[in-house]
Amino acid sequence: MSQAPDHSPDHWPRRLVAAMPVLPILIVSVLVLVGFVGGSGTTWVPLLATGPALAATTSGPRGVLCVGLAATVLGVSLAVRGGAPDGELAVALAALLVVTLACGVGSALRERRERVLAAVRSVAEAAQQALLQPVPATVGPFQVAVRYSAAAAEARIGGDLYALVSTPYGVRLIVGDVRGKGLPAVGTAALVLGVFREAAHDEPDLLDVVARIERSLARNLGPDDFVTAVVAGYPREGELEVVNCGHAAPLLVRDSVVVPVDPDRPAPPLGLRSLSGETPQLHVLPFTDGDQLLLYTDGVTEARNHEREFYPLAEGLARHTCDEPVDTVTALHAELQAHVGGRLHDDAALLLLRIPAQVPAVPSGAPV
Known about the structure:
Elements: H1 11-19, H2 22-38, H3 50-58, H4 61-81, H5 86-131, E1 138-139, E2 142-149, E3 160-167, E4 170-178, H6 182-202, H7 206-220, E5 227-236, E6 239-245, E7 251-254, E8 257-260, H8 273-276, E9 283-286, E10 292-296, H9 298-301, H10 313-320, H11 325-340, E11 348-354
Antiparallel strand pairs: 1-2, 2-11, 3-4, 4-5, 5-6, 6-9, 7-8, 7-10, 10-11
Helix pairs in contact: 2-3, 2-4, 3-4, 3-5, 4-5, 6-7, 10-11
């Protein structure tokens, strides 16, 4: 139940005190104390503007005005005690008031920008939920972990894309990277994901899924636009189908050995098939108990440190592979961030699949 507003006589003093930022008030108090001890009149009064200026960086207009009011009152006391001339006092206090008003306006503008930024963040988060839907920890026979970082400041989504769905034809997934950045890249990513999710449920053949994405992009993309992607499927136990369209080769982990899954014949990125005439091929590889497959975007492998050295993803995967995909991906992402010094310059996505190792059944009557 909501509480009624407090209209008691002592309500506004409490609100005034609550609005006062502690650190700016403390700084003003120290300056005034130094001025009283030194007996220097108006010499310290202009420095009291430090209080409202600092308050403007962290507090709202009310807090700034409260600090400015306190600084003005204390400044008058300091000047009067020092016997400052009226003209000199008036100039110093006028400067303090002007700074306070300017800082109050700046604080109001900052709060407005923060509200706009919060609204943009909420829209970005909603778009992320719509496009890059959360992937459960278990999908079909797989353990799954995903980590995605958008390079754009304050963004939640970018040009990288991923999706993993359970269909009548087994689990299917896509990891891709749209050429370009910004809103056009996000729009293209939405198009690819929408077509993939529909085709993955409709088409029995994985190559037909890729063909539908290709046809849609051919109708909607510009001549210089394209999408690199790996589309994979698990149609039957022990076999993984992979179609690589100009994307970085996935990394297969088997018996603690990391091996890239390179296509037998390179295929062009999605959206460029009409220019090259090349068609993608279906690569079938064994995928059994304990095997893991890492799919990623070039924001991972092209990340450089201060010495311009690329991040060694295969070596990092070999170091951090364990039986929990989420732990492996978390460790890889943390190491990637450390490699680049905390800020990625391109979108980066990691998606790891693992077939849990089967525990041999104990024969009936055998000792445990």
